[in-house]
Amino acid sequence: MGAQQKTHRVLGIGDRGEAPKADARGAEPVAANPEPESPSACDRLMEEVCERENLKQALKRVKANKGAPGVDGMTVQALPAYLREHWPSIRASLLEGTYQPQPVRRVEIPKPDGGGVRKLGIPSALDRLVQQAVLQVLQRQWDPTFSDSSYGFRPGRSAHQAVARAQGYIQAGYRWVVDLDLAQFFDRVNHDILMSRVARRVGDKRMLKLIRAFLTAGVLENGLVGATDEGTPQGGPLSPLLSNLMLDDLDRELERRGLRFVRYADDSNVYVRSARAGQRVMAGLKSFLTGRLKLKVNEAKSAVARPHTRKFLGFTFLNREQVKRRIAPKALSRLKERIRELTQRTRGISVDQMIGALKRYLTGWRGYFGFCETPSVLQRLDEWIRRRIRCFFWKQWKRSPARFRELTARGVTRDLAAQTVGSPHNAWRLSNSPALQCALTNRYLASLGLPSLRL
After folding, report:
1. What is the mean pLDDT of the chain?
2. pLDDT tens-digit profile of 372-419?
3. In order of start, what are the domains of the chain with their CATH numbers?
4. Are 162 and 262 in contact (CB under 8 A)?
5. Which of 110, 305, 348, 388 sits between 20 and 30 A of 437, alpha carbons compared?
6. At 220, is the secondary structure helix, strand, or coil?
7. HEC per residue, 15-35
8. 176-181 and 267-272: which strand pairing?
9. CA of 36: how far to CAs of 41, 50, 144, 411, in Å?
10. pTM for this one?
11. Angle, CA 130 vertex, CA 129 and CA 136 arms, to 5°
């Protein structure tokens, strides 16, 4: 029997005939749009978490997401073997309500806009499995109740849909935006307020205790474990769902006021027809967030402004009669900065390695920002990237004899090759020269595996 089959068998997620009967009775599948449940069903959520198919799916998702080890150093690859040995006692602790998560490991990553760092909390591999199993059960029940204007971390919803929704409001004449930024939202969520929202939806006291335990498990930082009195550490599977639950109050308030808005996680934009209306909305929302949810608005990053002056999920909008999506200037700057890093001659890598790294990065970038409606921008970026690569080749060839030999071997006339090699201009200037464009054609660069940003 294979290792994976053994793990599934220990978890009770193998053949249906191998599952304990008690599990089967307490683990009926939940429909995508569940009917209101009876109190007895609500009290048996933990049995649902431990149901074999739910665990099988959770283990598959955790393994696919990979991720760094937590405080115990256990890798995701080592998790199945650990479960084969310890799952019976882990399952018992979950069903008895005594499971105790480990502290999360604190890591800091730079924010994309260069504005400081984002603190992530990395749970242990086992805690990630448990959180994922809990997430799958709760999300099936909670997600259908969330606002239609909420898009972040929800099944079947995406950032592209959120941007398109915002574009539709602007096109309809709502050409002022209340751009709301919550100050360190994930770090400042009030546990008591959050748990009161969870308790409205969850009757299983074991589940309430487990979620509270995840929130208060502590953080290992600089070798010391500190208490976590507030916040939902980014990095665990359950955190996005809890954040959506917390901000569901904000969504309902906006709907109650009849406002047009789009929310993606803690990034909220409200669209109105005038600056005066925007100022009224901003004042009201600040009062609501601080009073009801104990959350603080980041004054420096929030504003009432024209949409084309603000960015939303990496995009902004052309200020024209026909509203079009375009890539935000900061996103373009980050792309160019990354391309410069990948095409530096001093990295000491081969052309194949450089092209491979570019391909991985550009394919992902295109998959997201290809959603823009400004193809001329993508065309100019393509041209700039190809110029960077020609510059890389020119520097790699180093000396004049090698440069002359490479140019003539690639179809450049001897006179033009000699003129280019003898030019006093620097590598960047020459990267746009007729000789290098002839020697390193667009078709040749594409044959090396360089993708185009234009779909």
Report:
1. 87
2. 999 999 999 999 999 999 999 999 999 999 999 999 999 999 999 999
3. 44-318 (3.30.70.270), 328-448 (no CATH)
4. yes
5. 348
6. strand
7. CHHHCCHHHHHCCCCCCCCCC
8. antiparallel
9. 10, 21, 12, 74
10. 0.84
11. 90
